[in-house]
Design a protein that fits this description.
Blueprint (H helix, E strand, L loop, with lengths): L12 E5 L6 E6 L2 H12 L5 E6 H17 L4 E6 L8 H13 L7 E6 L1 H13 L5 E6 L2 H7 L4 E6 L2 E8 L4 E5 L8 H18 L1 H16 L2 H20 L14 H10 L9 H18 L5 H14 L15 H11 L6 E7 L5 E8 H13 L1
Parallel strand pairs: 2-9, 3-4, 3-5, 5-6, 6-9
Antiparallel strand pairs: 1-2, 7-8, 10-11
Helix pairs in contact: 1-2, 3-4, 5-6, 5-8, 6-7, 6-10, 7-8, 9-10, 9-12, 10-11, 12-13
The chain binds glycine.
Glycine binds next to loops.
Length: about 375
C-alpha cells in the first residue's frame, strides 16, 4: 500500500518526525501562517523570537507572521538577508549571528527561519551554534523547502570548496508548511520544487508516483492535492530521517538524482538564470533511471515513464535542455567526482531497479558513467 493511501486529503495534516528525545511535528495546510503564533507559543511559552527571512518573503508575508506572534505575546526581531544562494556565505552567517546576539536571543528563545532553502539552511546553522545551540522553527515558503530542506536538520553554508560543506545537523523544534504561501511562487520555482516531490515516489513508493502522474496539475493549482503531496513527501522524509538521522545509511537514498544534479549546478556556475536546483534534480532523476536501464538494472519502460512525467510537468529531463550547455562528458564526470567521494575510480550512486525501487550502489565505475554521459550528450 502506498503512503499516499494512508493520508486522506481532508484530515488535519500533522506529520511527526519521530527522533528519540527530539520529536517534532510538521504542520501542513493553507492556514499555517495564521496558526504560527499559537503553534510557536505552544512549544516555547514566554520565549522571544528572531525571524530570519529574505527581502522577498519579508515584503510579502513578514508583517502577518509578526502580528500572529504578537497576538500570543511573542516579541520578535526581524533579520533580513538578500535572497539567493550567495547568502549562504561566511560573511552573511557572521552577520546573522551578530544580529541574533544584538537581539539578545538567549538559550531559551527561538530562531524562526522564514523563507526558502537558503534562509532555512543559514538560519538553522546560526541557531545550531548561537550560544552553543538555540531552538529553531522552520517556516518554509518554497515547495522545495517544504518537502525537503526544512525537514531533517541539515543546516549549513557554502565554501569556495563546494555547497553545504560547512554545517551541522540541528533539528528544528517545529515545522510549519503553509501551502498557501506557495501561491506567490513563480511557475518555474514551483515546478522545480515538484521534482523533489516526484523523487519520493521514485525512491520507494510507486503508488505515489502513479498518483503524481494523475494529479500533478492539481498540485500546481493548489487545494487538497497540494497539501496531500507535501504531506506524503514530508512523511516519506520523516521516516528516513527517523531511521538514519546522520546519513550513515538509508538517508543517502534522498540523494537520488543528486549526483548528476550537483555536477550540473557546478558546471552552470550555480547561476539560477540557467538552472535552479530542482531543475538539475529533474534531469538527475531521468539520468539516474536511464543509467540504471543501461546497466541492465531497470526496465526501459520505467526510465521512459520518469522522463515522460517530467516532460509533461514542464521540467527538463535531458542534458541538452541545460541553457548554455553543460560542457563535455569528461567535465560532467569530473564535476561528479568532486561532489561524491571517489574510491579507486568508482563512485557511489543511487540507482533503481524500477519506479519505487531505488538503492544505494557503491562502486559504480567512473568509466561506465563516462560512456553513459557521452551517449546522453549525443542525444
Ligand atoms: N536533502 C537531503 C537530505 O536531507 O538528506
Amino acid at each position: 500500500m502506498s503512503i499516499a493511501d494512508l493520508l486522506p486529503a481532508e484530515a488535519p495534516l500533522v506529520v511527526p518526525v519521530a527522533l528519540e528525545g527530539r520529536r517534532y511535528d510538521i504542520h501542513i495546510g493553507r492556514d499555517g501562517l495564521g496558526r504560527a503564533g499559537a503553534l510557536i507559543a505552544g512549544i516555547a511559552p514566554g520565549a522571544r523570537a528572531a525571524i530570519v527571512t529574505d527581502e522577498t518573503v519579508a515584503g510579502l508575508h513578514a508583517a502577518r507572521l509578526e502580528a500572529g506572534l504578537a497576538q500570543y505575546g511573542i516579541a520578535a526581531t526581524r533579520i533580513t538577508i538578500p535572497p539567493g544562494e550567495a547568502s549562504k556565505s561566511y560573511a552573511r552567517f557572521a552577520e546573522v549571528c551578530d544580529a541574533l546576539l544584538a537581539a539578545k536571543i538567549e538559550r531559551s528563545d527561538l530562531v524562526i527561519a522564514f523563507g526558502g532553502g537558503v534562509v532555512g539552511d543559514l538560519a538553522g546553522f546560526a541557531a545550531s551554534v548561537l550560544r552553543r545551540g538555540v531552538r529553531f522553527v522552520q517556516l518554509p515558503t518554497s515547495l522545495l523547502a517544504q518537502v525537503d530542506s526544512s525537514v531533517g536538520g541539515k543546516t549549513g553554508i557554502n565554501s569556495s570548496h563546494g555547497k553545504n560543506l560547512i554545517g551541522a545537523f540541528h533539528q528544528p523544534s517545529l515545522v510549519i508548511a503553509d501551502t498557501a504561501l506557495l501561491d506567490t511562487l513563480s511557475e518555474r520555482e514551483f515546478k522545480a520544487g515538484y521534482a523533489e516531490v516526484v523523487k519520493y515516489g521514485l525512491i520507494d513508493d510507486p503508488a505515489f508516483f502513479d498518483w503524481c502522474e494523475a494529479n500533478w496539475h492539481r498540485v500546481i493549482a493548489g487545494g487538497p492535492e497540494r497539501d496531500h503531496a507535501v504531506a506524503v513527501s514530508c512523511r516519506a522524509k520523516a521516516a528516513i530521517v527517523a531511521r538514519d538521522e546522520r546519513e550513515e545509511g538509508d538517508r543517502a537514498l534522498l540523494n537520488l538524482g543528486h549526483t548528476f544534479a550537483h555536477a550540473l549546478e557546478r558546471l552552470t556556475g550555480y547561476d539560477s538564470a540557467r538552472l535552479v536546483h530542482g531543475e538539475a534534480v529533474a534531469i538527475g532523476l531521468a539520468l539516474a533511471f536511464r543509467f540504471s536501464q543501461r546497466l541492465g538494472l531497470c526496465p526501459g519502460q520505467d526510465a521512459l515513464r520518469v522522463a515522460r512525467h517530467l516532460d509533461h510537468v514542464g521540467l527538463p529531463s535531458r542534458l541538452q535542455q541545460v541553457p548554455g550547455g553543460t560542457g563535455s562528458a569528461q567535465e560532467i564526470v569530473a564535476a561528479m567526482a568532486q561532489d561524491k567521494k571517489v574510491k579507486r575510480g568508482a563512485l557511489t550512486f543511487i540507482l533503481a531497479r524500477g519506479i519505487g525501487q531505488s538503492f544505494i550502489a557503491p562502486g559504480v565505475a567512473a568509466d561506465d558513467v563516462l560512456a553513459f554521459v557521452t551517449d546522453e550528450l549525443k542525444g
